[in-house]
């Protein structure tokens, strides 16, 4: 226990006492079910039926950018204000708030990248039943029905989406507490408005339910000074059987119906030893759902940062395949439909309906709202070696040396909480990490980097600069009584900086300056953990909902807290370099928009085969909602993996965006060379494979940054009309050109991969063996097998000279893998820049398109206004599915022609063009004759 | 790319200087395989290529042999001549990667990395440290010889001591046997005398009890004879329903009569004949009468108390004896009864004390016999204890003599020693061949980091690592264990401890016992491969 302070032990014991009841599974009793969350219980008790809400058509106002209408609840006469916007890019925004709330209700700031630009709306027709609005082109209309209130979005004769069609719109208006005196001011207001008087009278009759004004869970009491404030709305999706998204849950890609259990919960929580295959909330929340069928993809973005539950039901869910067939035969084909209902504890209804129609349209629509994936430093796409904890500088040095000794590339070594001086972030343990700059310099000498953890709980200690500054500036979150909120976390008693404050975030960012963060250097990056926030002694291991952030309650901002922590940290890393260098920050908690600040991982998983499996759908779901830079702890955080599981996890992780091995403090060491020479060789081989694909990964991240398209994709995104792909989540695509089917079963002898695309070829990247698309292919596997296929029709640039780290490979030459489709054509892209600065924003990069057609391979500049030079050249071109040419001629930009040597392997139809030698940034073409 | 060839000035005997040309990254030993202007055959024989494809920055050979001087082949290696230091191979992937690997800087010929030739510096430093190590090794090796001598001496001493002790054991065994005889001889008359004494006392007690019984009978007769006519009648008996003969709840006249032996009434003499039938059940009459002097119900109350007194708790006054008894039981149950004193009747006697008075002390003669037997017992115990100690001694000596203290017994001096190292938080304690422990510096209990397991070095150097196992268990983890790495040093000290993996400790320990005889120091760069050489004059 030498590496563990006594205090630490106490904290851990306490934490365990709270979280663990002696078994290897989540203690569900620590987390609320819908029934235990009073607003969810109240709202869910409401059954579909006729909505009490009615549109007051006479209140309609239409400006160039928006339509407003008042809604009235006939039961209590409370009026709501509905705002409808037509946003650029085929998005409809629906906002519903109280017309005159007692006090303002929270509207989520800082998530949208800007006030979304609108497009004009026009009224097509109007009568006493409602209004029909035109949504611009594509014959899209919104029908606002008045009695009861309902919205339908139509295209032609098809309903794309309906709101409140099941009458589940509910809006708990803010009200005075019955047992306290009514504020005179509010009474005056009521008198001034006759409508409100009636409403008040009616309101008296409404029953006060338990949990409206106070609620307790386990030993924690929530004072709820504002009373009930939940909002809820239902959405119907006709023709839809597949919905996706709303991460983070340890669930398959295709969301399940929730009628038989709890709804999916979105509430950022530090769940100790989380369990798979249930709708419990995890560390992050992105309230975005995608709906897909063969004709269309749409999305719903519910912009609310409070605790949220999502119910999903479907009219086909219960039906067997036979039942569906019977429907079809008998012609009683009821259109399949999925119904969704969102319930949030506070705030307003602010929902963006992204109308596609293609998956990529939805990605771009969502990106236009919340931004795209930040473009990471190239090195962060390499391999990351982490452990809780590398004990001291000597340990770091020897692990670093181990990678050289065993010739395994890596880019980042990580330090967890034990590197600090008593869990005081921004400090170093004076004994174990006495000279951090020496350590960092040692890594820099090998072109490697380090990540150190900085968590958002600050040790309450008058000798700790960070604490003193935050306290004296009043930057801590406050408790309900106005004092600094205190919770228990790694350092013991800790304060939580109020990251919702811009001034706090600016100060936090300034702490990363080299002269503030002692011992830091430019190759030190940051990891934000525990930012749900995790409070060991708080309700559900997080902050009390009645804690105060300025004029808002924690209840309102909870799911946003983690995003702000990463935002401020990333800003800090940018600012310390004077705005030159790209940051790298990993976060555990996240929200819509977190993609703009760095990477996320799937939290504290376990060394179990099922956890390896679930890493695929968990990252796919995140990718669908904009967060591309996702990974799971390779090897599993808790428990100790068998060598087989570890190897399989490396083989899977190497083909996922964020590739980091991590392990719990209590597990035996796990560096790749500790499992015998065979396993070492297997791990070395797959890490090297990762490095050979770095140019492709980098280009895909550039694409994600540009377009919002996920890097790691479900098959259906590229094959949206092939229903066989819709529920596939044991394999995935990287970009559109690599298909990966990891081996995730113990003792596996083979896997069956679905190769999509009727007219596609797929080439095994190891053997170059060609397979036809639209088939289930059984692939026998050994321990060294990683079934990965390159799509025929693609060109993937790789760097086959694997070195110690990605930076060492900067100037190395490329090998182009040209995989021909049945039409004997192929296309691909290459993106090159300096790999670490923001200079790409100043057009300092190379972006080229390779295309192969008519036996000519050429490189075309697709960013003619950009400028960058590279030393890298093309050393080899491998054409898969080729026929033997008689000669090959290179023609360079200057018009010079030369003959190229080549080899042809007729058994595999592989043509290897030897050393064409042109610079990767140049214009050229190669003709096969 | 700069030139494909290294130009080397080679020094022969310090007289001639010759230019040796060879492709970059090729060791001199393999130079003949790279003949300029002749087709090159990959060293694995897989194919032959024109010579201009050697080191042309494109990998043609599977084995990487065509690109010894570039990074083109994934599994190639590059030879650093490292003139002035030790030549070495590095993986091809480290050629021109911007990081200086060869001390002669030859690996970074085209990367722009600013590499200095550090070979001479390295050599100097290495020489210094090797000299220092050699010095230590030399000194340590001398110390080791002493340790070996001492250990061998110690070993001899122990062996001869063992022989002595084994001999003395024989004597002792005889002595024990003799004393056992003496003891048994003394215990026989003791037992007889004590039995006699006890028997006399039992007889005396019987007389007393009989008298008491008679007195009680008289009392009862008087009590029953309500009318004082000198007879107990059926009617008088009937007032004592407890005498119900068939316990059916009703005491009938017939039953009473039967009890009286078929007659209506009995006088004192007649009553005596039926007394035995009555006395167990009879209860002193209706509460009016004062209880008889001897009260059975009271006795019943007392008894559990006296039981309590004697059984669950051993008598306060001889706890040592009790303990010893247990020890004896562990050793040899047979002995148990032989010399236990006083015999277990004691508690019984005590109980009797209440009822029948105290047993009179042993007479002088008996007491003498008891004392004599006790003395014999004590002497026997003493001798047996000595025998056990000798056995322990022999076991320990045998263990130590047969313990694996290294090929020359050089580690014997560590036996039963302990060495400590204080770190920021803990005091670590290594007691070689025994255990390793850790104690917080500022109070707290000691944690066992493992008990002696085995020598655990690599096959060719098994005595370089000690393994201590099965320490205190870890939460959700293994039992703590410690690996102790031994290195040559003139002093015996723990130089560092760490916990590389949770609950798996690593200790560095220096000792002269691991020092090897240093080879004679050379003044030239050390490894004499065929192509070592100086590239300058």
Automatic annotation (TrEMBL), chain A:
One Gene Ontology cellular component: glucosidase II complex
CDD domains xrefs: GH31_GANC_GANAB_alpha (cd06603), GH31_N (cd14752)
Comp. bias intervals (Basic and acidic residues): 179-192
Location of the region described as Disordered in the Swiss-Prot/TrEMBL record: 179-230
Limits of the Glycoside hydrolase family 31 N-terminal domain: 82-311
InterPro entries assigned to the protein according to its UniProt record, in alphabetical order: Gal_mutarotase_sf_dom, GH, Glyco_hydro_31_C, Glyco_hydro_31_N_dom, Glyco_hydro_31_TIM, Glyco_hydro_b
SUPFAM superfamilies for this protein: (Trans)glycosidases, Galactose mutarotase-like, Glycosyl hydrolase domain
Protein name, entry field: Neutral alpha-glucosidase AB
From TrEMBL, chain B:
Gene Ontology CC terms, in alphabetical order: glucosidase II complex
Domain EF-hand: 212-247
Record-level Gene Ontology MF annotations: calcium ion binding
InterPro entries: EF-hand-dom_pair, EF_Hand_1_Ca_BS, EF_hand_dom, Gtb1-like, LDL_receptor-like_sf, Man6P_isomerase_rcpt-bd_dom_sf, MRH_dom, PRKCSH
Segments forming a coiled coil: 148-182, 366-400
Annotated Acidic residues bias: 306-336
Name assigned to this protein: Glucosidase 2 subunit beta
């Amino acid at each position: 226990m030498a590496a563990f302070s006594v205090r630490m032990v106490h904290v851990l014991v306490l934490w365990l006492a709270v979280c663990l009841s002696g078994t290897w599974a989540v203690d569900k009793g620590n987390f609320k079910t819908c029934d235990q969350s009073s607003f969810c219980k109240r709202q869910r008790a409401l059954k579909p039926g006729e909505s009490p809400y009615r549109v007051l058509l006479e209140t309609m106002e239409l400006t160039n950018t928006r339509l407003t209408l008042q809604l009235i609840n006939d039961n209590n006469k409370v009026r709501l204000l509905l705002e409808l916007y037509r946003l650029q890019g085929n998005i409809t925004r629906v906002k519903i708030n109280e017309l005159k709330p007692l006090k303002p209700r929270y509207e989520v700031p800082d998530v949208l990248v800007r006030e979304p630009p609108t497009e004009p709306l026009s009224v097509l027709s109007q009568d006493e039943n409602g209004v029909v609005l035109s949504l611009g082109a594509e014959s899209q209309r919104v029908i606002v029905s008045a009695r009861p209130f309902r919205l339908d979005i139509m295209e032609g004769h098809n309903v794309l989406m309906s709101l409140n069609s099941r009458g589940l719109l509910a809006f708990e208006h803010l009200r005075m507490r019955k047992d306290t005196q009514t504020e005179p001011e509010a009474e005056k207001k009521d008198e001034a408005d006759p409508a409100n008087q009636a409403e008040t009278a009616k309101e008296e009759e409404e029953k006060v339910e338990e949990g409206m004004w106070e609620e307790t869970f386990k030993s924690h009491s929530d004072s709820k000074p504002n009373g009930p404030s939940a909002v809820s709305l239902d959405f119907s999706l006709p023709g839809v059987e597949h919905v996706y998204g709303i991460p983070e849950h340890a669930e398959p890609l295709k969301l399940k119906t929730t009628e038989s259990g709890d709804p999916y919960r979105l509430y950022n929580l530090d769940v100790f030893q989380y369990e798979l295959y249930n709708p419990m909330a995890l560390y992050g929340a992105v309230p975005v759902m995608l709906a897909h069928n063969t004709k269309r993809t749409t999305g719903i973005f519910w912009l609310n940062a409070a605790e949220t539950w999502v119910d999903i039901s479907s009219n086909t869910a219960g039906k067997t395949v036979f039942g569906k067939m019977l429907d079809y035969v008998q012609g009683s084909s009821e259109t399949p439909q999925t119904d969704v209902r969102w319930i949030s504890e506070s705030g307003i209804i602010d929902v963006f309906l992204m109308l596609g129609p293609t998956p990529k349209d939805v990605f771009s629509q969502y990106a236009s709202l919340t931004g795209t994936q930040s473009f990471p430093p190239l090195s962060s796409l390499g391999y990351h070696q982490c452990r809780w904890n590398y004990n001291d500088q000597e340990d770091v040095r020897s692990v670093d040396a181990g990678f050289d000794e065993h010739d395994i590339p890596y880019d980042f070594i990580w330090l967890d909480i034990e590197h600090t001086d008593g869990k005081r972030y921004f400090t170093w343990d004076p004994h174990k990490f006495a000279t951090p700059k020496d350590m960092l310099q040692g890594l820099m000498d090998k072109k490697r980097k380090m990540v150190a953890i900085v968590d958002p709980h600050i040790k309450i200690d008058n000798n700790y600069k960070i604490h003193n500054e935050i306290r004296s500036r009043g930057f801590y979150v406050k408790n309900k009584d106005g004092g600094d909120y205190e919770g228990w976390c790694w350092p013991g008693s800790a304060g939580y900086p109020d990251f919702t404050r811009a001034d706090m975030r600016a100060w936090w960012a300034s702490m990363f300056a080299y002269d503030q963060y002692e011992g830091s250097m430019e190759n030190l990056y940051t990891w934000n953990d525990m930012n749900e926030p995790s409070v060991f002694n708080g309700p559900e291991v997080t902050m009390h909902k009645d804690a105060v952030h300025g004029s808002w309650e924690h209840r309102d901002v909870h799911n946003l807290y983690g995003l702000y922590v990463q935002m401020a940290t990333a800003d800090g890393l940018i600012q310390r370099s004077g705005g030159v260098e790209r940051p790298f920050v990993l976060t555990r908690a996240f929200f819509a928009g977190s993609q703009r600040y760095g990477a996320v991982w799937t939290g504290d998983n376990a060394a179990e085969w099922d956890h390896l499996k679930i890493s695929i759908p968990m990252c796919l779901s995140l990718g669908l909602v904009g967060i591309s830079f996702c990974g799971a702890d390779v090897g599993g955080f808790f428990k100790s993996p068998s060598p087989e599981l570890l190897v399989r996890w490396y083989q899977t992780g190497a083909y996922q965006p964020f590739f980091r091995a991590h392990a719990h403090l209590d597990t035996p060491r796990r560096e790749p060379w500790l499992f015998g020479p065979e396993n070492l060789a297997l791990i070395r081989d797959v890490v090297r494979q990762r490095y050979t694909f770095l140019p492709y990964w980098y280009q895909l991240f550039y694409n994600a940054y540009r377009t919002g398209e996920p890097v790691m994709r479900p098959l259906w995104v590229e094959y949206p009309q092939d229903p066989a792909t819709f529920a596939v989540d044991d394999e995935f695509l990287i970009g559109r050109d690599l298909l990966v089917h990891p081996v995730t079963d113990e003792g596996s002898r083979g896997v069956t991969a679905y190769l999509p695309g009727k007219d596609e070829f797929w080439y095994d990247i190891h053997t170059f063996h060609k397979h036809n698309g639209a088939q289930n292919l059984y692939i026998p596997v050994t321990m060294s097998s990683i079934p990965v296929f390159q799509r025929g029709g693609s060109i993937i640039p790789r760097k086959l000279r694997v070195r110690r780290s990605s930076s060492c490979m900067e100037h190395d030459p490329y090998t182009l893998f040209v995989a021909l489709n049945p039409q004997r054509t192929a296309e691909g892209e290459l993106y090159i820049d300096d790999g670490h600065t923001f200079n790409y924003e100043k057009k300092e990069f190379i972006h080229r398109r390779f295309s192969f057609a008519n036996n000519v391979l050429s490189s075309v500049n697709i960013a003619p206004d950009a400028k960058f030079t590279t030393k890298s050249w093309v050393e080899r071109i491998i054409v898969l599915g080729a026929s033997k040419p008689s000669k090959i001629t290179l023609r360079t930009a200057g018009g010079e022609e030369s003959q190229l040597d080549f080899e042809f392997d007729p058994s595999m139809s592989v043509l290897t063009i030897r050393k064409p030698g042109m610079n990767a940034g140049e214009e050229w073409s190669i003709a096969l004759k | 790319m700069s030139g494909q060839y290294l130009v080397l000035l080679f020094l022969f005997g310090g007289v001639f200087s010759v230019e040796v040309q060879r492709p970059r990254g090729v060791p001199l030993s393999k130079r003949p395989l790279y003949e300029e202007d002749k087709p090159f055959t990959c060293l694995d024989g897989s194919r032959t290529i024109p010579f201009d494809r050697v080191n042309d920055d494109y990998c043609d050979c599977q084995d990487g042999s065509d690109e010894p001087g570039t990074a083109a082949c994934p599994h190639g290696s590059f030879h650093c001549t490292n003139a002035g230091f030790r030549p070495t191979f590095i993986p091809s992937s480290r050629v021109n990667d911007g990081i200086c690997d060869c001390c002669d800087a030859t690996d970074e010929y085209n990367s722009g990395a600013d590499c200095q030739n550090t070979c001479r510096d390295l050599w100097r430093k290495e020489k210094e440290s090797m000299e220092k190590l050699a010095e230590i090794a030399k000194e340590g090796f001398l110390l080791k010889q002493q340790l070996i001598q001492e250990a061998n001496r110690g070993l001899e001493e122990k062996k001869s001591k063992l022989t002595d002790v084994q001999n003395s054991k024989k004597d002792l065994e005889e002595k024990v046997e003799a004393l056992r005889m003496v003891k048994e001889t003394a215990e026989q008359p003791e037992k007889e005398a004590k039995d006699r004494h006890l028997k006399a006392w039992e007889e005396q007690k019987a007389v007393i009890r009989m008298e008491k019984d008679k007195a009680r009978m008289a009392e009862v007769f008087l009590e029953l004879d309500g009318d004082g006519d000198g007879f107990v009648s059926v009617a008088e008996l009937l007032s004592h329903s407890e005498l119900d003969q068939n316990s059916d709840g009703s005491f009938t006249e017939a039953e009473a009569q039967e009890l009286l032996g078929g007659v209506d009434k009995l006088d004192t003499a007649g009553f005596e004949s039926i007394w035995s039938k009555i006395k167990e059940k009879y209860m002193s009459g209706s509460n009016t009468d004062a209880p008889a002097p001897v009260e059975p119900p009271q006795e019943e109350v007392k008894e559990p108390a006296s039981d309590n007194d004697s059984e669950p708790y051993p008598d306060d006054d001889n706890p040592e004896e009790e303990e010893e008894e247990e020890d004896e039981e562990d050793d040899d149950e047979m002995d148990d009864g032989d010399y236990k004193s006083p015999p277990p009747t004691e508690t019984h006697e005590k109980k009797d004390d209440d009822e029948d008075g105290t047993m009179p002390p042993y007479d002088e003669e008996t007491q003498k016999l008891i004392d004599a037997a006790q003395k014999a017992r004590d002497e026997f115990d003493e001798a047996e204890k000595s025998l056990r100690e000798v056995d322990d001694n022999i076991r320990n000596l045998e263990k130590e003599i047969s313990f694996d203290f290294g090929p020359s017994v050089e580690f014997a001096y560590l036996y039963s020693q302990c060495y400590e190292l204080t770190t920021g938080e803990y005091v670590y304690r290594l007691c070689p061949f025994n255990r390793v422990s850790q104690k917080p510096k500022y109070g707290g209990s000691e944690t066992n980091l493992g008990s002696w397991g085995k020598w655990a070095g690599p096959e060719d150097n098994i005595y370089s690592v000690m393994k201590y196992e099965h320490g205190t268990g870890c939460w959700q983890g293994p039992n703590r264990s410690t690996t102790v790495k031994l290195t040559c040093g003139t002093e015996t000290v723990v130089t560092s401890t760490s916990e590389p993996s949770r609950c798996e400790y690593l200790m560095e320990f220096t000792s002269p016992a691991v020092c090897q005889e240093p080879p004679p120091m050379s003044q030239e760069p050390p490894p004499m491969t065929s192509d070592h050489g100086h590239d300058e004059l």
